[in-house]
Amino acid sequence: MPDEVPSISCDVTVIGGGLAGKAAALHLARAGVRVVCIEPQKATRPPVGESLDWSAPDLLNRLGLSPGSLIASRIATWKRHVTVKMRDGCDVHYVPSAWLGGFPFYVNLATLHVERTQLDDEILKLVVDQGVTFVRDRVVDLEATDGQIRSVQTEGGRRVSSPWFIDASGMGVSLVARKFNLPSLQYGPTKVAIWAYFKVPQQEEGTTLYMDPRPAEYLEWIWEIPVSPDTVSVGYVAPGAVLKARREEGKSVEEVFRQQLMKFLRFDPLLKQGALGGINVTSFRCRVHPESAGPNWLIAGEAASLVDPMTSNGVTAALRHATEAAALIVKFRARGEVPLRAR
């Protein structure tokens, strides 16, 4: 066996090829930077984050994906309002006021719902076309001196070195935060999300949230998101302790999911379609790393912060992190490090 470890060098190493990682790599490559993006062959969890907030269209435009093109490709639908419905029949309807679209706010009065797998695939095509090198491997460690990262090591034995690094490894890895033992602020209990996709004949141009605001069901809610013209995403979010108790009662994940949907008449026709195929499950706890930038590294996406899904800004956060991280590297590339004030 040869003694030397296969090595790769580039201008910027991006750890993780999720939404934040791909977006950062794309911005950097367009600025003429040589980028290597390291991403495992198989994703660690299904992509989620389908109801976007009102800042998202501008960030997608910067990637070269206009809302109109995404809708024409059936990757997205319009989100013009949000409705919250209670079990007792009460509801609250939010539509952005027209004055938000003018001076000095210029807020988009419509945003998008997106089919995340297709959206991620579209961004990947742009990244590959821009010449970013993808390494299908998993980063397991990094070499650092005096707070600066020198290289990363992969499970496959590769060593990737560069003057700059972006950690977009996701909430389950957070490689740089763990390596440097960065403090984190955690809020709220651990939560679990269960969701599935249904075919529907007609949809509204908005996100609907269903709640049963009884003290015994605190922080439990259901989402309905039209991710494409004929498909709706329906999910249930609850504290992890609640789901654990129901599982200990002998209920399967599908039984728990069905039981929650049956509380609202809207879901009767969907449940009558039969067995729920392809149920997705993920657990998470909202948290943020206050320190997300170092001399030659920046943390982006869920590796930096995991926002509450109720706010619908997880995708926006990932895209904004990517945009700002790439801009800082381009701005201070000749200097060799990000100054303290900019961090």
Strand order of the largest sheet: 6-5-15-16-17-14-18
Number of strands: 21
First and last CA, distance = 43 Å
Secondary-structure content class: alpha/beta
Provide a count of the helices.
9
Write the H/E string, N to C. EEHEHHEEEEHEEEEEHEEEEEHHHEEEEH
Question: How can the largest sheet be summarized?
Answer: 7 strands, mixed
The coarse silhouette is globular
The assembly state of the depicted protein chains is single chain
How helical, in percent, are the residues? 25-40%
Q: Which runs of at least 5 residues are low in confidence (pLDDT < 50)? A: none
Round the mean pLDDT to the nearest integer and report it. 91
Q: What is the alpha-carbon Rg in Å? A: 21 Å
Structure description:
With about 350 residues, the chain is α/β, with parallel strands linked by helices. Helices cover about 25% and strands about 30% of the residues. The chain has nine helices and 21 strands. About 35% of the residues are buried. The mean pLDDT is about 90.
Short précis:
The chain contains 9 helices and 21 strands.
In terms of topology, how is this protein built?
Blueprint: E1 7-9, E2 12-15, H1 19-30, E3 35-39, H2 56-63, H3 67-72, E4 76-79, E5 81-86, E6 91-94, E7 111-114, H4 116-129, E8 133-136, E9 139-145, E10 148-154, E11 159-161, E12 164-167, H5 175-179, E13 185-186, E14 191-199, E15 206-211, E16 221-228, E17 231-239, H6 240-248, H7 253-261, H8 268-271, E18 280-284, E19 287-288, E20 297-299, E21 305-306, H9 314-332
Parallel strand pairs: 1-11, 2-3, 2-12, 3-8, 5-15, 12-20
Antiparallel strand pairs: 4-7, 5-6, 9-10, 10-11, 13-19, 14-17, 14-18, 15-16, 16-17, 19-21
